[in-house]
Amino acid sequence: MDHDRLWDVLVVGAGPAGAVAAAALAERGLHVALLEKDPWPEAKPGEVLTPNAIPILSHLGLLDLIEANGNLACPLACIDRAWSMARPNREHFLGHPGGRAWVIDRVTLEQLLVSRAMRAGVHVFLGHHVRGLSRRNRYWSVQSRSSDGLASLRAAFVVDASGPTSTLARRLGAKRKSLFRLLALHVQSAPDTERQSEPASLIVEAAAVGWWYAVCGPGQTLTCALFTDDPARARSAAARSALLAALDDTNSLPRWTKELVRSGHVKSVDASPSFLDHPAGEGWLAIGDAAASFDPIASQGLANALASAVDGAEAIGRQLQGDRVAMAAFAVRTTETWRHSVRQLFPIYQAAAHRWPTPFWQAHLSA
After folding, report:
1. Interior CA angle at 235 toward 230 and 240, to 5°?
2. In sequence order, what DSSP letters do the residues of 47-109 get, joined into one string?
3. What is the mean pLDDT of the segment spanning 33-43?
4. pLDDT tens string 184-199
């Protein structure tokens, strides 16, 4: 690593938001470094891109890649939703503007976006954990630790794309605020090409302890996840029992789904919808989940992360050209996007309120 080089922009976090922002900034002719704490992407559950993602995918030139690469994405035909009713109601995506949706392999997507960033001229440093951040004479110094030891990089601007941990923003005094607690309990199968391949259906159902979804992604990889507010279910055995109990009330799933849940590895993740009280400041901003994370029931997280990255890169370009209100305007847009998503949540949850007797659900429905 070139310790003495002064970067125009340093991006922390090589997920979709960080990689897209880094590439966009490099394409503007800026010298950009991208730091990622993990030396390689870890396995992640399948994610859904609904038709509302088409504009940003088209802007980024990703539509053709998604439709042509079976390892990256597979078509999503419909949602089978048993939310306020006992029997599932099928909603076809063909009836939506754009008429297309996909299940994405998150690791393949991240590798693709990082490769695009490198081709744009971004310098990527994997396995670097941020350990410190300071500013002097309008330049940032970011201290990181890797297998090679300690390093310090200087940059005129820093971007927090570290996910909900908001690694940089919280060091700069920003506070993370949650709307309510939501715990995601994921089980994912290995790819199985022997299973019958057909356009995927996203199954979403409310249950007494929260709600769950199941969907097959590329390579017929099954993701099944339960979302609940109960921290006692974070342990693997309790999570598995809760998920199996939720699945007992449905006839929507293939028989092998329960076998997967019984034998697969359960991973718990904080999925609480939350945001930073200020996602931008002098010489820095946060994008993607680092700025605001969305309730998974809305299927907006990935599309918003990509859009946030593009918007953030544009704001940085404007500030570096002397626009003194670019950061404040970006912060307003980011916060309003999150608030708009929250306003959409309450009708969704209210429709199934009779299925949730716990105080948590009633409390957040009336917030």
Report:
1. 85
2. EEE-GGGHHHHHHTT-HHHHHH-TTTEEEEEEEEEESSSSS-EEEEGGGSTT---EEE-HHHH
3. 84
4. 888 887 776 565 555 6
